[in-house]
């Protein structure tokens, strides 16, 4: 059922309101941890001390500031290079003499204008909503402070433009205290702009000469008092200008983020909904584009077999440890993703731990890399032109709600023993900037070869610290960074002040002529591997058609044989009829001859004239006899004519049936010969594919063996797919080396910007595409997506893979999905439910203020996984038995054995099966679950009853009659 745009608008506004009340909270009970996190120190007043109460005690109006207060005569030199009217003795001692002001390290001052104590603020908020936070479902740090506002000042105490930050929580808290209702909380982003303009003006005083002047503590505390009054913070929760943090750097620090990381992206998507421009994965995720004809992949094996036809297999695959093929449902999921997300869209896959979800994602990564390699191979000379390839279409971002989840991909893909079979990285020698990737792992010197990295295939980015750590090693490091290595490719003869780093010594950069030759050779090898894969896949498709033809022939054979027997019988009967007609005709001819003889005899003996004249009795007798013979001959002539017609008809029928019999016999022989040929082909295919060949009984085998199988995923085709992956990786490296001069400028821009350089130019989509060409997979948390890809609009990232989606609240992924063309959502909503900072009653009241129910849209009951499941075209259903309760004919009791049967099916290892049951009422206008039951999966199918305890506890509630259990790629529900 489609969700209306108005409902989605209300949902987004509710999510925004909830995030308004989700603040950033400082660590610990003091401000020292905050200063440490920012790489600075508390310096609340001017003093030469480096520690002690004079530094960290809250400043008062008349206290001296840690920055010099400039007079009007001294302000003339500010804003550029140091002038004669800005004496150097006013500069703090940390500034190095002799450096130009725009190049030196200088002090910056982060002013905490106001704050609120976290514990008391949340307690007051819960009292307002008459709510109580459940520790199992709500996560809120209770120590520390909520920073209400902060601003950054330069070395002279003058505001840094656009550095003012105001907390949405404090604004929302004040609004609730004033208005007494959550209505209007979603208007924060509009209100924020007005507040920033108002208070940035107060923080930018000017002297009589019109120039900005230094701020004093009196100025700052005056702004602080005005701010808490404007925000409506109660007096007993106000903390005015608790501290200033001094940081030393070349560039001003980034503006503080005091509100939720998700607010900006939620606002962007809300704007698309209001303007009717939301499309693609975001529209599907939010229910605007529901599946048109969902089907049950666990009962409809015909459609499942169509999804597993060889034509739908990606040409390459990820050659993991052991070179094991994907199991049936894993491969079906990959095939569906590749087919359905060829341009855009959203796909959801469910699976408990240990069912190969990460393995499945690796095959999708391999598909993207190989598809991009096909485009790269179309460029003959990458050193001249990179072509018109949209490289961001092949960008892969792995995102989740926490770092631990995304590290499953980003930290495992580069490692030899975790990612590849030894035949690939050891015997095959596959290496893709492995030395640099190994340096990023920070391994001990005595690490085994298998523990080292095979390739720079993934990067853990996200927050600023992760980005900085990655880029220092990946790009700027003198030993292992690629910056110097690329420089030596682009300008091999340029004199350098330092010797080659370790990377250049172990992997000497190719000179341009060598790089061009290597590209031509690698490109030819890739094209040969690609042609081989296509040929083998076409052969398997032909074999699949052969099996269908064989089934068709074997089905037709009995009918053809029966038809041949019938035709032979009819031919025998026709020949008998012809013989009888011919015999009858001969009898008539004989009778005709007899009558002619008798007639001749009578006409020879004529009566006398007298007898004829007198018509005597003898004459009359003679005449009567002649007339009788003439009449008989006339009748006999007609009979002979009819007999000849019958003979002709019998001959025609005999000839027709003879022809039909010959044709049927030829058809029978042809089908029998075709069956022999097809069976021979099947035997040959079975010898090549082994257990991967889906034989005659394959599609009717029991579930246990069926779901563990790997149809078409073996033999020469599997080996060729592995070889194509290796060829694609080598082609990618050769392309990068050959086109280094064209790629390096984009890599420089992206590396500088991602490192946090405020003065670096913003990377364009093409710059990021080049970065993703070098590092195909980037992992991040949802919270960092908006900042890292702030210039990316709707549908600008090629692939988004959401891991552990069951642990993420629905709204957390909205911004990432909005930026993605294709989104793959994978996880298990039954392991760890999403944690929210908003208690349940507060959540309900916020959603109610927008006129909707939070049940289908909010954590902890719903997650990114459940919303993506609703958009799934491919589902699976388990039938459940139902009984009835004596007191209420509309409700049913839930027999545990039916649920246990569903659970035992879910416990099949190496299959992508979920374990969640939700009972819905058909009478409700909104699909709101009456009961949601979850349980731990049994260790074996022999003890499924252990997994039913969680269901049994909740199953005593009144439920309507249940019909189905939806799993695998889609929604796990029981409708009543």
Automatic annotation (TrEMBL):
Q: Which domain of life is it from?
A: Bacteria
Q: Which keywords does this chain's UniProt record carry?
A: ATP-binding, Coiled coil, Nucleotide-binding
Sections of the chain in a coiled coil: 654-681
The protein's matches in SUPFAM superfamilies, at most eight in alphabetical order, are given as: P-loop containing nucleoside triphosphate hydrolases
Region of interest called Disordered, as start-end residue ranges on this chain: 43-91
> What are this entry's molecular-function GO terms?
ATP binding; DNA helicase activity
Q: Which PANTHER family match?
A: DNA HELICASE B, DNA2/NAM7 HELICASE FAMILY MEMBER
* Identification of the protein by name: DNA2/NAM7 helicase helicase domain-containing protein
Which species expresses this protein natively? Acidiphilium acidophilum
């Amino acid at each position: 059922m489609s969700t209306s745009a108005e409902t989605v608008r209300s949902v987004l506004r509710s999510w925004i309101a909830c995030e308004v009340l989700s603040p950033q909270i400082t660590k610990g009970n003091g401000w020292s941890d905050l200063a440490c996190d920012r790489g600075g120190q508390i310096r609340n007043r001017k003093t030469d001390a480096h520690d002690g109460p004079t530094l960290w005690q809250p400043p008062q109006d008349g206290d001296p500031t840690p920055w010099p207060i400039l007079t009007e005569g001294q302000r003339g030199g500010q804003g550029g290079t140091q002038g004669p009217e800005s004496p150097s003795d006013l500069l703090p001692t940390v500034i190095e003499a002799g450096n130009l002001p725009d190049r030196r390290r200088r002090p910056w001052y982060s002013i905490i204008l106001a704050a609120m104590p976290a514990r008391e603020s949340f307690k007051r908020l819960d009292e307002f909503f008459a709510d109580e936070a459940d520790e199992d479902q709500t996560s809120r740090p209770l120590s520390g402070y909520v920073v209400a506002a902060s601003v950054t000042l330069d070395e002279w105490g003058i505001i840094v433009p656009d550095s003012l930050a105001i907390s949405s929580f404090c604004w929302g808290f004040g609004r609730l205290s004033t208005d007494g209702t959550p209505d209007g909380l979603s208007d924060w982003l509009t209100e924020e702009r007005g507040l920033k303009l108002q208070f940035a003006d107060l923080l930018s005083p000017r002297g009589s000469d019109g120039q900005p002047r230094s701020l004093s503590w009196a100025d700052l505390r005056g702004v602080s008092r005005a701010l808490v009054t404007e925000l409506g913070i109660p007096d007993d929760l106000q903390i005015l200008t608790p501290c200033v943090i001094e940081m030393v750097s070349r560039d001003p620090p980034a503006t503080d983020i005091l509100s939720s990381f998700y607010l900006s992206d939620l606002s962007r998507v809300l704007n698309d909904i209001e303007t009717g421009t939301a499309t693609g994965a975001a529209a599907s995720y939010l229910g605007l584009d529901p599946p048109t004809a969902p089907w049950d992949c666990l009962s409809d094996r015909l459609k499942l077999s169509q999804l597993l036809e060889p034509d739908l297999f990606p040409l390459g695959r990820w050659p993991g440890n052991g070179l094991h093929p994907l199991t049936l449902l894993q491969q079906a999921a990959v095939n569906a993703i590749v087919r359905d997300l060829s341009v855009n869209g959203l796909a959801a896959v469910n699976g408990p731990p240990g069912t190969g979800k990460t393995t499945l994602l690796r095959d999708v990564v391999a598909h993207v890399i190989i598809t991009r390699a096909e485009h790269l191979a179309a460029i003959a000379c990458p050193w001249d032109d990179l072509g018109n390839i949209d490289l961001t279409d092949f960008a892969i971002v792995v995102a989740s709600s926490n770092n631990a989840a995304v590290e499953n991909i980003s930290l495992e893909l580069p490692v030899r023993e975790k990612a590849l079979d030894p035949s690939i990285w050891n015997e095959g020698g596959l290496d893709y900037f492995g030395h640099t990737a190994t340096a990023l792992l920070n391994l001990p010197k005595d690490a085994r070869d298998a523990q080292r990295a095979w390739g720079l295939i993934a990067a853990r980015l996200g927050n600023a610290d992760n980005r900085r750590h990655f880029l220092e090693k990946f790009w700027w490091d003198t030993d292992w960074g690629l910056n110097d290595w690329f420089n030596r490719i682009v300008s091999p003869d340029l004199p350098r002040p330092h010797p080659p780093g370790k990377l250049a010594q172990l992997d000497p950069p190719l000179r341009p002529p060598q790089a061009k030759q290597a590209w031509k050779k690698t490109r030819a090898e890739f094209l040969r591997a690609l042609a081989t894969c296509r040929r083998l896949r076409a052969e398997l498709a032909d074999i699949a058609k052969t099996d269908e033809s064989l089934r068709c022939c074997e089905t037709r054979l009995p009918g053809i044989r029966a038809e041949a027997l019938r035709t032979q019988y009819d031919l025998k009967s026709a020949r008998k009829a012809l013989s009888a007609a011919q015999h009858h005709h001969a009898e008539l001819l004989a009778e005709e001859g007899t009558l002619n003889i008798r007639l001749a005899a009578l006409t020879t003996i004529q009566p006398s004239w007298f007898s004829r004249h007198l018509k005597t009795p003898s004459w009359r007798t003679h005449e009567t006899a002649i007339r009788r013979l003439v009449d008989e001959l006339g009748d006999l002539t007609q009979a002979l004519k009819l007999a000849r017609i019958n003979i002709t008809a019998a001959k025609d029928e005999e000839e027709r049936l003879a022809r039909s019999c010959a044709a049927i016999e030829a058809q029978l022989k042809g089908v029998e010969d075709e069956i022999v040929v097809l069976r021979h082909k099947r035997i040959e295919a079975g010898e090549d594919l082994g257990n991967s060949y889906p034989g005659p009984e394959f599609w009717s085998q029991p579930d246990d063996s069926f779901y563990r199988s790997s149809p078409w995923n073996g033999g020469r085709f599997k080996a060729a797919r592995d070889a194509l992956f290796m060829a694609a990786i080598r082609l990618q490296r050769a392309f990068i080396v050959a086109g280094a001069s064209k790629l390096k400028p984009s890599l420089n821009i992206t590396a500088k910007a991602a490192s946090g350089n405020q003065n670096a130019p913003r990377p364009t989509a093409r710059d990021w595409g080049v970065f993703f060409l070098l590092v195909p997979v980037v992992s991040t948390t949802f919270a960092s997506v908006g900042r890292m890809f702030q210039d990316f609009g709707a549908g600008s990232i090629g692939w988004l893979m959401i891991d552990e989606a069951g642990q993420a609240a629905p709204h957390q992924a909205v911004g990432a999905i909005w930026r993605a063309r294709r989104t793959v959502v994978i996880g298990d909503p039954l392991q760890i439910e999403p944690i929210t900072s908003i208690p349940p009653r507060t959540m309900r009241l916020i959603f109610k203020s927008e006129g909707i129910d939070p049940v289908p849209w909010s954590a902890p009951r719903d997650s990114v996984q459940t919303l993506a499941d609703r958009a799934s075209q491919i589902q699976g259903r388990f039938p459940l038995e139902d009984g009835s309760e004596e007191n209420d004919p509309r409700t049913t009791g839930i027999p545990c054995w039916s649920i246990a049967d569903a659970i035992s099916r879910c416990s099949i290892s190496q299959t992508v099966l979920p374990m969640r049951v939700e009972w819905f009422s058909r009478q409700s206008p909104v699909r709101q679950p009456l009961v949601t039951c979850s349980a731990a999966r049994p260790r074996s199918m022999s003890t499924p009853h252990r997994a039913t305890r969680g269901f049994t506890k909740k199953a005593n509630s009144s439920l309507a009659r249940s019909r189905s259990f939806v799993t695998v790629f889609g929604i796990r529900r029981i409708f009543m």
